[in-house]
Design goal:
Helix content is 43%, strand content 0%. It is mostly helical. The chain has one domain. The longest helix has 14 residues, at 68-81.
Length: 98
């Protein structure tokens, strides 16, 4: 079932495809890739680590070695690094700080 916000994003529920993580890359590589492919600068890595401290702990882990909640945090972090304008979510990921 799609919601109006999903149609506004033009994608499935969640973050845009450009924010999706790659399972063969480490968390650090995923975040760096988001930075270098951004159309406009977004958040800094320090800001991402402040809000998602669990990602800092997982920098050496590949995308397929982290939990579902950590994958959600990584996708959101990639979107924030890329200054994505629309990122739909139904809940705040576990492990994030306000």
């Amino acid at each position: 079932m799609r919601h109006d916000d999903d149609r506004a994003c033009g994608r499935r529920p969640g973050c845009p495809k450009s924010a999706a993580s790659s399972p063969n890359l480490t968390v650090a590589e995923n975040l760096k890739l988001a930075q270098v492919t951004a159309r406009a600068p977004g958040w800094t890595l320090d800001h991402v680590y402040e809000k998602f401290p669990r990602l800092r702990e997982r920098l050496g882990n590949k995308g397929d070695e982290i939990s579902g909640g950590e994958k959600q945090m990584l996708s959101i972090a990639r979107a924030l690094l890329q200054d994505v304008k629309c990122c739909c979510s139904t809940s705040r990921p576990k492990g994030s700080r306000r």
